[in-house]
Input
Amino acid sequence: MLTIDIESILNSIPNEIHWEDIVQFEKLDERVAIANDLCANIIGVNEGTIEWCPNDNPPNHLEKLVWWWVVRPDLGAAIAKEAPQEFKMIISQYILQI
Output
């Protein structure tokens, strides 16, 4: 079960984020590529923003986790607790690279 904090974060995710609000912006391209491999075409990159384009309506749990990780990789450990095994391993490898 999600904690109240993570659950409220996942339920309040905006669909568009300005580049200056993205944590670890210098590694954004890497995370977008990973996200789009996990959930096809879920992240759109625009001039000055990134956009969340979930495939499911409403977005499924993995799509929410992936989007939030792209924007807030610093919350990777908390996100990994709720992630399926494949995504959990990706987050772990990413954390080890930092």
Notes: The longest helix spans residues 85-97.
